[in-house]
Specification:
This protein is an alpha/beta fold. Strands 4-5-6-7-8-9-11-12 form an eight-stranded parallel barrel, surrounded by four helices. Helix 10 links the parallel strand 7 and strand 8. Helix 1 runs parallel beside helix 2, helix 4 crosses helix 13 and helix 13 runs parallel beside helix 14.
């Protein structure tokens, strides 16, 4: 525990303070006393929500000088792939352009949404997925993250006995067909590289897909789902095991289904409970440090599918420190929950923390996703980015329930399946050879292709 708190003593607010000083933003982002922003990084009169001017943040406080590596991580020109959950439907897709515009063009590379857990039809994908798939396919270097429930009636507050029975049925294969259909749907939509956040916050009490009633069968059930989805031709899914931070109903390590079926160790982490410091969020049992250590031991990437403000209100220190933590640990992706009370763009209730988030991430480059192991990176078709839309009103309702008080690297999209060979390439039989033709200087100047291939075949015999 001492070592974990040492990170806070050295990195703490100092990381982001030093980083923002380097960018000329420390006074605005962490300083109160009605300090103004530097126009070199963000324009005066920072827009908030649907156009409300931003307000000053509380005063920057003295902190130990962090080591150079952490300062560079927080202040670097490049950030890990980021996004936000803003809405579960087509509005959520449209909002991504507005968020990117608000961040001064910092690429929003991650789209994140949830499948409803009301019925198996919804869990199989329905019509919800198409706009997200279109966004993902429209530009190279984008990632689609999809939270997938493991049970229907997922928020019906079923008893432990009911959940135990459902877990047993799933472990025996009763639900395999639903996840096969979801996998087929994702492949057909051209997003076979989706990151699947399966059975999220399984260590809590909120969802019917929780683990505590029967951890052994729950792990068997997870493994069956992954096997069913991976059996679909053309898929390159990655599966994200994402508990809520802390002990909750069960230690999340007791639910871990094994390295063979997990690609990412995620964590949903909000600023709660009230009065808990960020240092305690790091060092508590099964907290942020435990996640990082566990992932390293199992040679897995980390992620933050859900994070944001909560029971400590508009907390700029938390925002500073969580962004510094993310910068230092380079997750596969991070997506803030951008609705009240958690958010920074759609929610007007958090102007000081919002100012920190925007100042730290404004006008940055973000890392391009690399392909998962064994898969070559392939660019998606390039299309113009959508025109930035005005941020939605602050009255947006969360599409996913707010977490109860008790709950609380390297992006890698995989290429689409290879296109079928053209008829010309296979005409006359697959055993024909194709002879490269040397390009002239004019052809090399005019065309992007580096080689032209010509197939020669005998003319058919002619009579007379």
């Amino acid at each position: 525990m001492t070592g974990r708190r040492h990170w806070m003593a050295r990195a703490g607010v100092g990381v982001v303070t030093a980083a923002l000083l380097m960018a000329g933003l420390a006074t605005a982002a962490l300083g109160g006393e009605s300090a103004g922003r530097s126009s070199a990084a963000t324009p005066d009169g920072v827009s908030r929500g649907a156009g409300t001017p931003g307000r000053g943040a509380p005063g920057a406080r003295a902190a130990d000088v962090p080591d150079d590596a952490l300062v560079r991580a927080a202040a670097g020109a490049e950030v890990s792939p980021l996004g936000a959950f803003t809405d579960s439907g087509a509005d959520g897709v449209a909002n991504l352009a507005g968020l990117q515009n608000w961040l001064g063009g910092t690429p929003v590379r991650v789209a994140h949404t949830y499948l409803p857990g009301d019925s198996w039809d919804s869990i199989e994908g329905g019509d919800l997925l198409e706009p997200w798939a279109q966004w993902k396919r429209a530009e190279a270097g984008r990632m689609f993250v999809l939270n997938v429930p493991m049970q229907e009636r997922n928020e019906d507050h079923l008893s432990d006995d009911q959940v135990r029975a459902l877990i047993e049925e799933g472990a025996q294969g009763a639900d395999d067909v639903h996840f096969t259909r979801l996998a087929q749907r994702l492949v057909a939509l051209g997003v076979p590289d989706t990151v699947i956040v399966l059975g999220w916050e399984m260590n809590g009490t909120t969802y019917s897909h929780r683990c505590a009633p029967d951890p052994a069968d729950w792990k068997t059930y997870w493994n069956r789902i992954v096997a069913a989805m991976r059996a679909v031709p053309g898929q390159h899914f990655r599966f994200d095991f994402a508990p809520s931070r802390g002990q909750d109903a069960i230690a999340w390590t007791e639910c871990y289904p094994g390295d063979a079926t997990v690609d990412v160790i995620g964590m949903d982490s909000y600023d709660q409970p009230g009065g808990e410091s960020f240092a305690e969020q790091v060092s508590e049992p099964y907290g942020l440090q435990e996640q990082v250590d566990f992932a390293a031991a199992h040679k897995k990437a980390i992620s933050y599918p859900e994070w944001g403000l909560f029971q400590n209100g508009d907390n700029p220190d938390y925002m500073s420190l969580m962004l510094a933590w993310i910068a230092a640990h380079k997750p596969l992706y991070q997506t803030i929950s951008d609705y009240c009370p958690h958010g920074v763009w759609q929610c007007r209730d958090n102007p000081r923390a919002s100012g920190v988030y925007r100042a730290v991430l404004y006008g940055k480059k973000s890392a391009l996703p690399a392909a998962p192991p064994g898969k070559a990176s392939t660019a998606s078709p390039a299309t113009p980015r959508p025109t930035a839309t005005a941020p939605p009103a602050s009255s947006v309702k969360p599409a996913v329930p707010v977490k109860p008080a008790a709950s609380v690297a390297r992006a890698v999209p995989v290429p689409l399946p290879a296109a079928a060979p053209s008829p010309d390439a296979t005409a006359g039989g697959g055993d024909e050879t194709c002879t490269p033709m040397r390009l002239t200087a004019e052809m090399r100047q005019r065309y992007a292709s580096g080689e032209v291939c010509v197939t020669l075949r005998p003319k058919p015999a002619t009579s007379g």
